[in-house]
Design goal:
Helix content is about 25%, strand content about 25%. It has about 700 residues and is of the alpha+beta class. The chain has 3 domains: about 20-45 and about 235-630, Alpha/alpha barrel (Glycosyltransferase); about 45-230, Galactose-binding domain-like (Jelly Rolls, Sandwich); about 645-705, Immunoglobulin-like (Sandwich).
Amino acid sequence: MKRCIYFLSILLTFTFWVCTSVCHGQSQSPAAQYITNQVEKQNKTIAVFRDFGDGENYYTQRAALNPSDVRPNPEMDEKAPSPFGASSIKITYPLSANDWNGYIFMTGKLPTGSTEPELDFGRTNTGYDLSGAKRLKFKARGEVGGERVRFYMGGLAYNDPLAPYPDTDEKHYNNKAFVALSAEWTDYVIDLSGLDLSRIASGFGWVTNEPENRGKEKIVFYLDEIIYEFDEEISKPLLLRSHEPVAVDREEAFINNFAYIYDNAIAALVLSYTGEHAKARQIADALVFAANNDRFYNTCMLRNAYANGHIQSFPGWLSPLGKVFAKLPGFYDTASSMWWEDRYAVSMNTGNIGWSMLALMEVYRNAPQQREYLTTACGLGDYILDNFFSPDEAGGGFTGGFEGWEPTPEKLTYKSTEHAIDLYVAYKQLAELTLTLSPAASARYQTASIHARNFLMSMYDPIPGCFYTGTMNDGRTINKSMLPLDTNTWGILALSDDTDVADLWDSEKVVSFIEQHFRVGDGVDFNEDCDGIWYEGAGQYALVLDLLGKADDYAGILACMNNASDDDGSITAADRDGVTTGFDVTIATNETETGLKAIPWLYNKRGALGATAWLAFAQLRINPYTGKSTDHSSTGKVTLSVSPAKVWSSAGSLHIRTAQSGVVRVYNFGGTLVESLTASAGETKVSPLPTGRYVVTLNGNAYKIAVF
């Protein structure tokens, strides 16, 4: 399969609910309602064509009705500008005497081992069951007006005795006569009442001829928004588009059909918190399907992104393993006969899987009879533990994942603080949910949670009051070159419910660090250059301020986001194009991944699902790491219990006083274990230690950073 990599404008590394924000399942959040509406839209429509390369397009193959070797077929440019989305279809048909032609928008097949889809005229069962569809709607216009065309659906191989799988109904027209198109966009409807739609491989078609357009050398007309509509919802596993589509002539248009698993995981959490459990299950079902039906890997895992829309591959499309598979984003370029994909999308980051585990577990809590959600969360947790666990002597924590294509992707050897935060909470919740089902598995997950938290705390520097981004590629050297906002906002949110780290960090100091380093007017930036507002981070910071009882500051950030949101409740990734992060993303120039180079990772002013989900959390006042309300304005601070151990340093020695005996471990600031001993009740002295900062744990619980 040939591939080309393109510019990524945005990279996403990435219960309990208090009824003050949710009442009888009705969201009190415009942003949450937007997410609900996006799922509902897919539940009531099936697209023949919405935009070029859209993952919601069902009928992706094109067949000329009257092909010829002596004259050109009509040209269909599916990247033409559109007032309704990213693109429309421009048809140019040079006319010759008594000639006729047209095109079918149809299904096809991808046999095992093939890299290019094939047309199929009823020989394979590739049709869709459209039962329940009430109408087929589409938009059309002529270049000058007066162009005469006829439109239809169905009828593929209907009278072919050699076709075992014909369409279950004959061709059905919007008008038996030809339609004279207007130069203005016009809505057309094909009524589907009384039709047998149980197998339809020809989703749409058009036909015209020279006699109907006599006197013209050619006709040019346009089509767009070819959509089947249902009155009742059809619920299938699906993923939501991560970014609103942009015109296909823009460089970042190539992520139009991306559905990042991080974005969809937090969208599923929003749906769960607002009582939209059935819709949350649709996203969870897609994650379950993707985790267990990769086109290449026979293990429970998730890639960073999939195609938006219904997750399962088209009927008749099989993976190299000979099975149905989760669709990856990209597009098939007819000019080059190549399928183009993105290097990051086909890769895997451990933090993104951590968020997916959190979403699956939340959905499982609301549907405990559906064990596949918990089973898949466990499978993902086991996959991370088996492949990316870094032992204490190697710096602790978890490595980043892998990058690149099967069968030999590159293992990422850096360790991310963000990933550690996600995995700490994910494994903690997994241990709780499996405690009675499998005590041994629960104990393993609890150990993994502590392991992730110890690395997280090794990335905290008490002097400036910040969490660093993680390590360099050696897995040990702390990366201090870039300071991202989210390691600090997520650190506070993830640790807010943990009574074991009372002495480890000062949330007020972290907030002060954020104010000094990331503030941009009424919002915050991703990094310290403060060149624009990053709205996802603004949502995170609003929750932190609410959690700490800073009511006025919370209200100010939320007002900034609400003012920037669209009428439909969504919000853009940033307040302007080109907001920098300080990081690069790696791209390749061809399918062999030669010519690897780094380009800046930027955020643009473009509708973003991830930012909208964090706006929803802020509006709902709920912490997605704990599922609890952030409304602590009455206390003014996060309440943490008193640590049962006291840790301090003097004269190069470390002192621990505890009322209980236990195993004491001391880690340096890079997460490497430097001392391990059994301490008795009372005071224990560890010396000598070099000058530096150390995380001290007692029986696996982190207590304090000691500074010499």
